[in-house]
Design goal:
Elements: H1 3-15, H2 24-33, H3 45-51, H4 62-77, H5 97-116, H6 143-158, H7 164-209, E1 212-221, E2 229-237, E3 259-265, E4 279-280, H8 284-293, H9 295-303, E5 308-311, E6 326-331, H10 340-347, E7 356-364, E8 370-379, E9 384-385, H11 399-404
Antiparallel strand pairs: 1-2, 2-3, 3-4, 5-6, 6-7, 7-8, 8-9
Helix pairs in contact: 1-2, 1-5, 1-6, 1-7, 2-5, 4-5, 6-7, 8-9
Amino acid sequence: MDPITHAASGAVAMLALRRRPPRAVLVGALAAAAPDIDILFGHDPLTTLLLHRGITHALPAVPLFALLLALPALLLLRGGPSGPMRLSSSEPARWSFPAVWFCMACMVLLHIWLDCITTYGTLIFLPFSADRVRLNGVFIIDLLLTLPLLRAVWRCRASRRRSYQEKLAALTTARLALLWVFFYPLLCVGLNALHTSRITETLRADAARRGAVLEQATVLPDAFAPFFWRVLWQERPQGVPLPGADTLLQPSLPDTGPVVRTAGLDALGRLRTPFSEPQPAMPRAAASLLASRSVEAAAFFDFALLPVLDVLPEDDRNAMLPPEARQWRSYDLRFGSSLDFVRKLMALRPNADIPFQLMLAVEPDARGTPAPVSVRLRFSDSRRDSGWRLPAPPRDAPLLRRLVGLR
């Protein structure tokens, strides 16, 4: 989720308490946004891909990360009179260190929850597993989720010096907003599951009529979900053998084989736009081979969702390589929209381009197997570009690097 939603969720969680120490709302907002500090440690696209939503978002690391947050927060939350929303004249709120530690853990878990419900994916099982959890419930910026939280924060702060009844109403608003943080995403995740079941049958039947086989379908939230959704799927012609890794040595894109397409869905999960033009899917055999020879490719394909294969545009080609080297790029169609006005808005963003791209050049090795000789990762929105470099072969990383998710 975006930083505003994270911070607002932490503020609402604190405002939902009947008694709290001073400055608790500010501390809650900062703590709920704190796991995204990992973005500061990604000095290049590879480390950004491995670290963002990584160890600071991992469930096994929550106690330690919460402890690191609790140490500075203790100075602000341990004592003092209750905050402005105090509704009684009882003893001032005094939080012990375990209470502050527990509070910080709750803020971190709240952050993890809001990231898991998006489509980016969150590595919540590090360091034991690099599997990404993505529930595909809400768009990366969801006004239906964020605005009620901001309204609750504004109403609670506006009632600081008003009557008891107004303070009580503001407290109720904060608690309802906190429930909304969980109810609304769960509703969207449930709708996604329902839409996935229905559209999968529709796409499977349509593919069969065209002599194709549906291999995988994923429903994604579009802007203004749950009113609009997208479906991303991969299909292949019946009777056509799966392409192998040698596809990367061909001079052009394959004419047959699996393709990836998208379409827009309405609030009921029905098709509302025509199918997009088919794009050749990255052959699984090729992706596995590249991942076994390049850390960059392995990280990218772990992150990608139904990646496609495309010829690398001339402007991006590695001019230092001989003409016979095959140069490709791979990306997925996850980060987009089926709404025309949203696409126009997205095109206005700085450095507008395909958000996450893996560029690679391959040549045949001694056995005639495609081998990556140069790789490049470019993340346009974050302005991170590795430039062309030799692929880093997979190796056993030191223990500390493995613990934080680096390879």
